[in-house]
Structure formats: C-alpha cells, structure tokens
Amino acid sequence: MVTVNTKKRILGQKKPFKLEDIWRIRTHLEIEGNLMELALLNLAIDCKLRSCDLLRLRVCDVSSSGIIMTRVLLTQSKTSRDVQFEITSKTQHALSQWLFVSQLSPQDF
C-alpha cells in the first residue's frame, strides 16, 4: 500500500515496473552506451535481490577467470539465507562488456 504523509512524500512499497518500462529503460541505456547501469539493471532483474545485496556484490561473486558465471550463490544480508540465482545470457553479455571496459579487479564492487 502506498500512502502520502504530511510532507507529500510517498511511503510504502512502490509499484513494480511494467515489462514495457523495463524494455524502454534497457533501450535507452544501450543507446547511451551506459554499460554499468545496463549491467546492474539486468542483474537486478535476474537476481531479484534487495539493493543493499546487489550493490554488495563483488566482481569475483559473478565471474571466475574473466568468465561470467551462469549461477551464483549469495547470502542475503537481511535474512542471512543463501539465495541462488541464474544470470541470463543477456546479463552475462552486459556484465562482461562492463568488466572489460572498466578493467575492474576481482575484489572490486
């Protein structure tokens, strides 16, 4: 439920993106050449993690010897539960492009 408080701020859970919104954002990021944002968007959709867990991921969590993994196991910070998710080929491609261009080390976020 979304409510508005006295300071006109929206509180509560926001409405999820519609599929056409996601495609619009992806297309916009691809046209701009914004590899980092595209990779993070695709990874967020694949893993469905909370933002705190997504931003805590290191390069070594999703790749090994420069190859993006197809499946990742991660412990959530809020629940301390192990979560396994698959990385789609589209996300693998976006991640590998971003990692190649940015020259991130395995310990980087």
From TrEMBL:
Gene3D superfamilies: Intergrase catalytic core
InterPro entries per the UniProt record, alphabetical: DNA_brk_join_enz, Integrase-like_cat_sf
GO MF: DNA binding
A Gene Ontology BP annotation from the UniProt entry: DNA integration
Keywords linked to the UniProt accession: DNA recombination
Record-given protein name: Integrase
Organism this protein belongs to: Vibrio vulnificus
